[in-house]
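Example 3.2
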Amino acid sequence: MALLTSAAGAILLLLLASTLYSLICLLRNYLAARKIGVPVRIIPVDHINPLWLLVSQRVVSVFRRLPSWLGNNNITKYDYLGFEIPLRWSSHAEMGDAFVLCTPSRNWLYIGNPEVITAMLKRPNDFPHDSQLTAMLDVFGPNISTAQGADWKKMRKLMGSCFIDQNFEIVWRESIAQASDMGRYWSSQPSVETVAHDTRTLSLNVMSRAGFGKSYPFKGHHETHVALKGSSMSYKEALQTILENSILIMALGTKLLAKPWLPGFFKNLHYACTSFQGYMTELFEEGKKTSTSERIFDRTLMNSLVRASQQETTGSLSEREIYGNMFVFNFAGHDTTAHTFEWVMLFLAANPKVQDWVHEEIQYVLGGRSKEEWDYKRDFPRLKRCLSVVFESLRLYSPVGLAKWTGEHSATLQVGEKMLTIPPKTMVVPSNASVHTDPRYWGSDSLTWRPSRWVEAGPSNSNDIDGEELISPVRGAFISWSEGARDCPGKKFSQVEAVATIAALCKDWRVDPVTNPGETLDDARKRVSRFIEEDTGMVLLVQLLHPERSPLVWRKR
């Protein structure tokens, strides 16, 4: 009994000490935040605290059930991952172009002005990324997402020689082929509840072909076999296993996964990692042999990276750096593309007039040519309406945000008439959910999905479609691929993949929501629009949380 009492007392003392320490840290950070000179909101736990992430949604849900005078507080507004999505621009409308969230572990400065965001992103030395937040990405080797300074410049230079038209040709053709097979599969089903799974398959297959030269036929959810274990694990199965469990792998590391006392699930993850490493080694050796080839077929990302590194005399990449960057290409491009496709499919299903508008462009540009005759260089630049569908979906829901910090030194930033002095170790976050929907930059219908806002009619004497041009929004008001020196190197890769996929699907099929009993098709479309807004949240990326709850039906045109 005495032992239990002592243990309980020790635990209580530990909790009290932890609470006191947290309060001291919160006070220290609050005093630092006040000196910045912008509005400050206090939250008791950092919204990215790992333990808080496990319970935050439940705690916030409980608080929201309380009377408004108790439930409407900083915890329910700001203290959970993805709080920016429902708030949009309202916090900045209330507090101005900059405000601070003060937590016990750090301060977060949010910026809601495109001009300030652009200025900040042009200064990567003053506002670098926090290497502690990205260090896990080094699981297969150093890479462009974790590198700083001279190492980053070296990698960025070499990346530029990988994402080129010869690689985009591969992306274009593979996306058309995969999307066509996906459309045939979807139209063969009475309804489709597996958009999330199937678009991940498409994205993985495109990356496999364009990244490593490995081709796989598209197989829908009900055609897919469970990934094999042991010696029969293929390249695709290994990569898919890694991507589906990437956070766990990055958190634990491949060495820990190899421990014999771990359950079989972890051993299978380790086997996937070693298999993928082995495949990358084989492809690396093949890349060295084919790196002098000019054939488009050989211009995969792996071959291009090997070739660029071999030709660079002063700053080549090590073998581990090549592996690290190839992993990051896959990690960064897989789920982000798949989540974007999920929104696109639902938005199209809810907006039949947009489908017709896009189909009109596809018919005009591509005509009666077979899909094998579609030409990347000639056709991709003309499919502006298809690209506008992607832009508009990402404007409302971007899977990935940006987060910089001041590092070990303070930094200054001009916000309106004020010159802010930002203390060391302060996170600085462009509020993309705000600037993407702020009526000052997007008009009074800024929360409406309207792809035509991106397309400007040409001169009156030109053909309506041929004369159309994509508008350029206020710089810094659309940052789905980031801005400045550290923008996303795979930006055009993803755009080519998305446009080719949309064109292949909308050329031959149209999509509608499945109607519930007693529901008209128009009612179903309105329900899908509400569903997108209500079901979008953040896990590790911004995504639809339950896309299977809004099934679709695909029919031949």
